[in-house]
């Protein structure tokens, strides 16, 4: 008897405290908590439903889903695999990153440390705006304007760097190839990477920079010793955010690339494909099973972008912990 | 003692070299840039490259090399490195600005050829692919309806989630929500489209409609709204909350009457930027809304069109008249998005939250 009394009073007190909470408070906190949970449920549902449909498709696939170079889910037996798509997605994204990251660091440095003050602010504003240009417009511009302009560059690369195998152009034809797609993706992710990197560079401790200047460092030495080390994790996470966008970009690739299901290391030859481009291109002619097959390839894309973005966020979160800038 | 006193003047009297190096005049970078551009154009003309991309690349390369050579000769290796870094930064700036300017210029100049009042007020009903005419009205209508519905779904959920994260959230659930909001920001738009396709269309058996597209757009919009609202709510000074709570105002009324009004400018900006982002999304619309030439004002039944989808379709048709229409629609789309952006940023500046000093 004696031992059970304290918990009983505790429970009583907590019940009284709960009933004292105003109904408005309970409704509002419940609503906001519910919204948060809704978001989690949506994420779980995306993963769950895509997996379910993908399993339906892959179980009927007559060949290995990951190593096949063909996409014919309507065939009998159905044959489809993502090898070419995975290769194309990675190659185009890597080209985009190789071009975009150094240039974006350059622009970010330009805005944060090099540009005349009067130019820096409007420039940052314009870069912000450019991040909002819809991808279909980049695609249209790329297909009609950029492709003919890159013809000359392609021939040039073939002529002087053809011995490197990847720049060997075996067939004539317009530049609707992985290389062009990479350049276009680079232009598209440039504003995103620049924005994040610029923010990080602006946070670099002024005292370090001034100390370096006082020791007689040139501007480049200040950047190399005080700004870049501080911004390294910022650059990495910004790049990964850009990579996430490049991996999932659909329309620009669908408009510019002339796709094929040939796995080719020759970047200048038309052909290849990416996950997102393949979905957009094959969707209209696909029957229900074909759509499931496309969903299966979309699931792979989803997992890849999830990993890339998750890694980027981890890096950002880790940086927040030890950076004094957020205190 | 006397040693130290004696040595000091000696050290001063024997500087290792002159204190000031030879410096290049201020106009050197400009002169080098002009010279290398001239050389690039000259080489391009002589070799007969028809693509200006090569001219630009050769000029940029010459600029960097010439800068290094000149500075290394006059000012020394360290200064040369500094100058090369500066010139590389300028080159990357120009490299980025040229395509972006070209994009803006091409879209505006080609779009203006077709864009007029007729184009904005007519659909493509009965217009053949190869003939000029027709318009974008049905797509504009579809875009506005789909984006409106998506905003109606996503804005409240996003806002409340942000309120939860800032005002209530503690512990594992809040951490999980924060992490997955971040991850959700990176979902490719086509995956959001596939998700709605898998559930709404394939499982539940509905046909394509504007509403299906709107749901996919809402998924893309939610994390953006959460993120920006969260940032804004964090800027609201705690003193305001405490003052209100100390007066005996319930927490929910404090949030509704004190916290949200203080941050309303930033929240509006965030929502409008999110709207601008989803307006340009093509991929989910392509999968779910399907596209039509006719005016379909009902977003819940039957295929609709939308601006980005219209651009894609007209480009795919490929005739001169269709491509011209694609450019005009692209101009309408970009104008729509840019106006949203500019207004949103204007609101942000005008109603910036007054942070505590």
UniProtKB/TrEMBL annotation, chain A:
Compartment(s) where it occurs, according to its Swiss-Prot or TrEMBL record: Cell membrane
Membrane-spanning residues: 36-59, 79-111, 123-150, 178-197, 246-268, 293-312
CDD domains: TM_PBP2
Membrane-topology annotation of the record: Multi-pass membrane protein
SUPFAM superfamilies reported for this sequence: MetI-like (SSF161098)
Top-level lineage group: Bacteria
Keywords associated with the record: Cell membrane, Membrane, Phosphate transport, Transmembrane, Transmembrane helix, Transport
Residues covered by the ABC transmembrane type-1 domain: 86-312
UniProt-annotated stretches for the region Disordered: 1-21
InterPro entries: MetI-like, MetI-like_sf, Phosphate_PstC, Phosphate_Transport_Permease
Task of the protein: Part of the binding-protein-dependent transport system for phosphate; probably responsible for the translocation of the substrate across the membrane.
Family under the similarity heading: Belongs to the binding-protein-dependent transport system permease family. CysTW subfamily.
PANTHER family: PHOSPHATE TRANSPORT SYSTEM PERMEASE PROTEIN PST (PTHR30425), PHOSPHATE TRANSPORT SYSTEM PERMEASE PROTEIN PSTC (PTHR30425:SF1)
Protein known as: Phosphate transport system permease protein
TrEMBL record, chain B:
Function: Part of the binding-protein-dependent transport system for phosphate; probably responsible for the translocation of the substrate across the membrane.
Keywords for this protein: Cell membrane, Membrane, Phosphate transport, Transmembrane, Transmembrane helix, Transport
Ranges of residues in domain ABC transmembrane type-1: 140-344
Cell compartment(s), UniProt: Cell membrane
Keyword Oxidoreductase: no
Highest taxon, organism lineage: Bacteria
Principal location listed in the UniProt entry: membrane
Transmembrane segments: 30-49, 55-72, 84-106, 147-166, 178-200, 206-226, 258-278, 326-348
SUPFAM superfamilies (UniProt xref): MetI-like (SSF161098)
Membrane topology: Multi-pass membrane protein
Protein name (database record): Phosphate transport system permease protein PstA
Family: Belongs to the binding-protein-dependent transport system permease family. CysTW subfamily.
């Amino acid at each position: 008897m004696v031992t059970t009394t304290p918990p009983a009073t505790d429970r009583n007190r907590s019940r009284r405290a709960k009933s004292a909470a105003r109904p408005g408070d309970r409704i509002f906190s419940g609503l906001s908590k519910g919204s948060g949970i809704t978001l989690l449920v949506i994420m779980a549902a995306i993963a769950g439903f895509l997996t379910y449909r993908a399993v339906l498709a892959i179980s009927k696939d007559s060949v290995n889903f990951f190593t096949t170079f063909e996409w014919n889910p309507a065939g009998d037996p159905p044959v489809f695999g993502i090898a070419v798509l995975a290769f194309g997605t990675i190659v185009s994204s890597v080209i985009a990153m190789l071009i975009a990251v150094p240039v974006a660091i350059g622009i970010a440095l330009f805005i944060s440390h090099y540009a005349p003050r009067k130019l820096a602010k409007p420039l940052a504003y314009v870069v912000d705006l450019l991040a909002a240009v819809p991808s279909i417009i980049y695609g249209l511009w790329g297909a009609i304007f950029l492709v003919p302009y890159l013809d000359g560059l392609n021939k040039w690369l073939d002529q002087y760097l053809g011995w490197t195998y990847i720049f060997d152009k075996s067939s004539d034809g317009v530049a609707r190839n992985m290389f062009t797609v990479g350049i276009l993706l680079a232009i598209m992710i440039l504003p995103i990477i620049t924005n994040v990197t610029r923010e990080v560079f602006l946070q670099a401790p002024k005292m370090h920079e001034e100390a370096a200047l006082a020791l007689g460092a040139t501007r480049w030495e200040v950047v190399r010793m005080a700004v870049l080390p501080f911004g390294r994790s910022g650059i990495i996470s910004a790049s990964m955010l850009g990579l996430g966008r490049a991996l999932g970009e659909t329309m620009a690739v669908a408009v510019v690339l002339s796709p094929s299901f040939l796995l080719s290391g020759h970047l200048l030859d038309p052909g290849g494909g990416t996950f997102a481009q393949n979905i957009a291109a094959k969707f209209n002619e696909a029957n229900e099973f074909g759509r499931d097959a496309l969903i299966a390839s979309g699931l792979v894309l989803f997992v890849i972008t999830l990993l890339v973005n998750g890694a980027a966020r981890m890096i950002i979160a880790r940086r927040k912990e030890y950076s004094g800038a957020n205190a | 003692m006397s040693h130290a006193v004696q040595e000091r003047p000696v050290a001063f009297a024997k500087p290792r070299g002159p204190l000031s190096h030879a410096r290049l005049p201020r106009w050197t970078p400009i002169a080098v840039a002009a010279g290398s551009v001239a050389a690039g154009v000259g080489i391009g003309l002589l070799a007969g490259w028809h693509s200006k991309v090569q001219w630009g690349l050769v000029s940029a390369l010459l600029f960097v090399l010439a800068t290094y050579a000149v500075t290394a000769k006059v000012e020394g290796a360290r200064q040369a490195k500094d100058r090369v870094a500066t010139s590389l930064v300028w080159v990357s700036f120009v490299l980025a600005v040229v395509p972006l300017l070209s994009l803006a210029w091409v879209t505006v100049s080609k779009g203006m050829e077709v864009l007029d009042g007729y184009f904005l007020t007519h659909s493509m009903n009965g217009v053949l692919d190869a003939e000029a005419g027709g318009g974008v009205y049905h797509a504009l209508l579809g875009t506005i309806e789909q984006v409106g519905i998506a905003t109606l779904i996503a804005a409240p959920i996003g806002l409340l989630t942000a309120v939860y994260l800032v005002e209530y959230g503690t512990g594992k659930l809040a951490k999980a929500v924060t992490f997955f909001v971040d991850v959700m920001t990176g979902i490719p738009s086509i995956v959001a489209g596939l998700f709605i396709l898998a559930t709404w269309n394939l499982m539940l058996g509905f046909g394509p409609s504007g509403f299906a597209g709107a749901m996919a757009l809402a998924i893309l919009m939610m994390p953006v709204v959460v993120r920006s609202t969260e940032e804004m709510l964090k800027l609201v000074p705690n003193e305001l909350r405490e003052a209100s709570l100390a007066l005996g105002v319930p927490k929910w009324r404090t949030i509704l009457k004190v916290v949200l009004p203080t941050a309303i400018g930033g929240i509006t900006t965030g929502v409008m930027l999110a709207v601008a982002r989803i307006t340009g999304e093509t991929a989910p619309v392509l999968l779910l809304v399907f596209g039509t030439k006719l005016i379909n004002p009902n977003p819940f039944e039957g295929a609709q069109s939308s601006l980005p989808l219209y651009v894609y379709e007209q480009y795919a048709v490929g005739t001169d008249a269709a491509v011209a229409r694609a450019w005009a629609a692209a101009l309408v789309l970009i104008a729509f998005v840019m106006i949203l952006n500019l207004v949103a940023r204007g609101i942000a500046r005008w109603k910036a939250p007054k942070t505590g000093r």
